[in-house]
Write a structure and sequence with these properties.
The complex is a heterodimer of chains A (about 220) and B (about 475). Chain A is an alpha/beta fold. Chain A has seven helices and twelve strands. Chain B contains 22 helices and ten strands. In chain B, the strands form two sheets. Chain B has a six-stranded parallel sheet, sandwiched between helices. In chain B, strands 8-5-6-9 form a four-stranded mixed sheet, with helices on both faces. The chains are: A alpha/beta (about 220), B alpha/beta (about 475). Chain A: This is Lactate utilization protein C.
């Protein structure tokens, strides 16, 4: 018999005569302590994310490309990776086109195998969007897509993320329910709550372990 | 790095008592653990500042795990069906050897030479680094702590903080010696060295291996929590991702992970959430530009079904591997993780290891506890660890041939002499006449009690019966009282 059958048979035999424990999930426990007034969501998110070294800037739908260009320039980043076919990627391209002195734009527009070396060794920064955020834990929600792939928010040492203020929700439970995650999950879904970090040596916190060293969030207050 | 340097060479020839004794004499080790555990306990306490919320959440965590276990076979089948629908290949293994065979056959098919591993305790059960190394496949740890202990040919001493037994100076020496880098004790610089070395390995690796924190049956999703990003790297960059996990890690619904993740990260590290919560539901789909082409899940039994068979011991499988029980354990804090000599140290190790390796191999583990109760009190899923330790002590001394047989290696500490003494003790205490005779003898002959009574007198003065028994004095007192009235 197969390992699967052996395991399942053993488990089933052990459960003979028992009834399953009823599902009495108390959603109040995971929502009520983690609910905020609308004007509190940005401060709450900000407090938690800044506590773990995230840089946060408030901006608007109109102004963020200019702010992004400023931040990229200030940090002397030689290039910025974008997802060219997304609406925000398009906006960046437009802004950059009007300002030819800005650092180069790179497009993630082909399978990683075709440019893996460049991605790892010569891609200092990236911009992605988010699906929103969670105020309770200070987390960005990301569902990478074919247009904006998974490694964009992972390999480049500096990660810029766009967040619409209207998409900041209270807690993870609410996110799952309102976005109906149980009906189907993408290849990869992520909660990102700061730049990568570790405390594996003497419990001393160090940032920039394996993922981005810097996470910079642009919150669009009017979006 | 060649294969032979990858083989962990920690010698564990002495028994647990000797290792514990040695650890107690190691001042550096004790200081490293004491300060780390104190800080982890404080962080947890701060993260659960509202006791009311904490206790309700623990009760919910317990209920979710109990519900999952109460339908475990059905949920495993549902998980497999949904993962398969998502394109993930699911494998089942009863033993660590079978699990290793599965991994090796995938590696062979892919002609893999290099494997990069995110943190996975199940892969430690499998001794995957060693097994793949013997096949000529480099299997490198990428969690900073795991990387440090692997570089020093050691094993993790804590399930969350693998290198907690080392201080920065020791890591500095190690990196200087093994990697040939300039000596530095600066933790930021040490981490940057690790990042640089391992980035290249992520880039080159043919296969990424990870563990699983929760496997969601409802959606066919593997959820991993981590801070470093090595878990995301291991599961996204290499062309193949193999996740290995115990059969108990499944939960029914996606919403179940909301309280469990909160309990896990707050109990383990005092963090409201880890930097990354990585939810993987399949390999790269047509049109997607990155992610592994193949995703595999290996479901490992390795003794778990034995714990599952007994309704009390089954609670062991509630565990979500936060490590809070070890952080709060006075024994673990003093002897550290290596003294246990097995993959899982501390209180959870003492109750899970006997199912994996047989009680006869770790007969002293259930006794490595003062039964202070701290582990049970902090457990986020309310495993009654002290009760299970007592239960294993009973299984440990069961007479040979006792049926039903509960676990492999039971009765390994059975002694006819000890059983006889206990039987006599029971008889003595249940027969008033006999007890009176005994008391009389004990008080009258008190001068004859030996000064050396085995292990007891190694650390204590020998017990001497009093001249008069409490019974005797109470009787006299009561007689006097009634005479006064």
């Amino acid at each position: 018999m197969s390992a699967k059958q052996n395991i399942l048979n053993k488990l089933r035999k052990s459960l003979t005569g028992t009834t399953p424990v009823p599902d009495n999930f108390d959603e109040v426990l995971v929502t009520e302590p983690w609910t905020y007034a609308p004007e509190q969501r940005i401060p709450q998110l900000r407090k938690l994310m800044e506590a773990v070294h995230t840089e946060i800037h408030l901006s608007t739908e109109q102004d963020w490309p200019a702010l992004l260009a400023q931040l990229v320039t200030d940090r002397q980043l030689p290039s910025l990776l974008i997802a060219p076919t997304t609406p925000h990627g398009q906006k960046v391209t437009d802004h950059w086109a009007q300002n030819p002195a800005l650092p180069a734009l790179k497009a993630y527009d082909r399978p990683v195998e075709e440019w893996k070396t460049e991605l790892f060794n010569d891609t200092p920064a990236s911009l992605t969007t988010t699906l929103g955020a969670i105020a309770a834990t200070g987390s960005l929600i990301m569902w990478p897509t074919p247009e904006e792939p998974r490694l964009m928010s992972l390999v480049p040492p500096v990660h810029f993320a766009l967040l619409k203020a209207s998409e900041i929700r209270d807690n993870f439970y609410q996110v799952q329910r309102e976005m109906n995650w149980a009906a189907g999950m993408p290849t990869n879904a992520l909660l990102v709550s700061g730049p990568s970090k570790t405390a594996d040596i003497e419990q001393i916190l160090a940032y920039g372990a394996h993922g981005p060293k810097d996470l910079i969030v642009l919150i669009l207050e009017d979006a | 790095m060649n294969a032979s340097t990858l083989i962990p060479t920690v010698t564990v020839e002495e028994d647990f008592r000797e290792r514990a004794h040695e650890a107690l004499g190691d001042v550096q080790l004790r200081n490293n653990f004491r300060s780390a555990m104190d800080s982890l306990m404080t962080k947890r306490a701060v993260a659960f500042s509202d006791a009311h919320e904490r206790e309700h959440l623990r009760a919910l965590g317990n209920a979710i795990r109990a519900r999952a276990l109460s339908k475990l076979p059905d949920l495993l089948e549902r998980l497999e069906a949904n993962l398969t629908r998502n394109g993930v290949q699911v494998h089942w293994a009863e033993t660590v050897d079978e699990a290793n065979e599965i991994v090796i056959s995938i590696a062979r098919r892919r002609a893999a030479k290099q494997v990069i591993k995110g943190k996975s305790m199940v892969s430690e059960e499998m001794e995957m680094n060693h097994v793949l190394g013997a096949q000529g496949i480099e299997c490198l740890e990428s969690d900073m702590g795991e990387y440090i202990v692997q570089l020093d040919n050691e094993k993790p001493s804590h399930i969350i903080m693998p290198a907690i037994h080392k201080n920065a100076g020791q890591v500095a020496d190690l990196f200087h010696e093994k990697l040939g880098v300039e000596y530095t004790k600066d933790v930021d610089q040490l981490i940057q060295i690790g990042r640089r070395v391992l980035r290249q390995k992520f880039f080159e690796a043919d296969i990424g291996v990870s563990g699983v924190n929760f496997a969601v049956a409802e959606t066919g999703t593997l959820l991993l929590v981590e801070n470093e990003g090595n878990g995301r790297m291991s599961t996204t960059v290499p062309p193949v991702h193999i996740a290995v996990t115990g059969i108990e890690k499944v939960v029914e619904n996606l919403r179940d992970v909301v309280p469990l993740v909160s309990l896990l990260t707050r109990s383990a590290l005092g963090q409201p959430i880890t930097t990354y919560v990585n939810m993987i539901s399949g390999p790269r789909k047509p049109g997607e530009l990155d992610g592994p082409e193949e995703v595999h899940l290996v479901l490992l039994d390795n003794g778990r079904s034995q714990a599952f068979a007994d309704s009390e011991l089954r609670q062991t499988l509630n565990c979500i591997r936060c490590g809070a029980c070890m952080n709060h354990c006075p024994v673990y804090t003093r002897i550290g993780g290596h003294a246990y000599g097995e993959v899982y140290p501390g209180p959870i190790g003492a109750i899970i290891t006997p199912h994996m390796v047989g009680l006869a191999k770790v007969p002293d583990h259930p006794s490595a506890s003062s039964l202070c109760g701290a582990c049970g009190e902090v457990c986020p899923v309310k495993i009654p660890i002290p009760a299970l330790l007592r239960r294993l002590r009973e299984e440990n001394v069961k007479a040979p041939g006792t049926s039903p047989r509960i676990m492999r290696g039971q009765g390994s500490k059975y002694s006819r002499k000890e059983r006889l003494i206990w039987n006599m003790w029971a008889k003595l205490n249940s027969s008033p006449a006999l007890y009176r005779v005994f008391l009389k003898a004990a008080t009258r002959l008190r001068g004859l009690t030996p000064n050396n009574v085995g292990p007891w007198t190694q650390n204590h003065s020998a017990p001497k019966p009093a001249a008069r028994s409490l019974h005797d004095m109470a009787r006299e007192h009561l007689a006097k009282k009634s005479g006064d009235q």
